Amino acid sequence: MENTSEITNNIINTINTIFGNLFSSVDSSLYEILDDLVFINNNVLKDKYFSNIFGISTNNGILLIANSLLVGFVLYYSARLMLSNFTYQRTENPAQFVVKCIIFGICMNSSFFIIEQIINLNFNVCSLIRSLGEDMFRKKHLLF
Fold first, then answer.
1. First CA to last CA distance, the chain
2. Residues with Cβ < 8 Å from 42, sequence gap 6 or more?
3. pTM (predicted TM-score)
4. Which of 40, 84, 106, 107 could form a disulfide with 91 if both were Cys (CB 3.0 to 4.6 A apart)?
5. pLDDT digits over 4-31, tens only?
């Protein structure tokens, strides 16, 4: 009887040791992965796939599509404005339309810069919070 309880205790202790080692290794690697996901910086924007999809300049990626749509809206509005003289229908004031097009064009073409600044701000705030946590708990982690 004593022999079976001793074997049972050995098995339970072995399983606890295995699970303890497994969870501690997952725990340490999990924090590194979470740090990489949360604390992003401008290197994300320099990724090959991101620059192919989003487009760094106005002649590739989504920016090319957005600029093409803006030109299409200008052509549609100009045709509609010319036809409104014949059909006597009201259209938007040309000055308002031009101002809207200029604002949208500037916002679209400077969106890469805006995204870059938002990511910089996020990284700076996260670094501040992380350094406060390191000071409070006396634990050091390397930032990128």
1. 57
2. 116, 119, 120, 123
3. 0.61
4. 84
5. 778 888 888 888 888 877 777 666 667 6
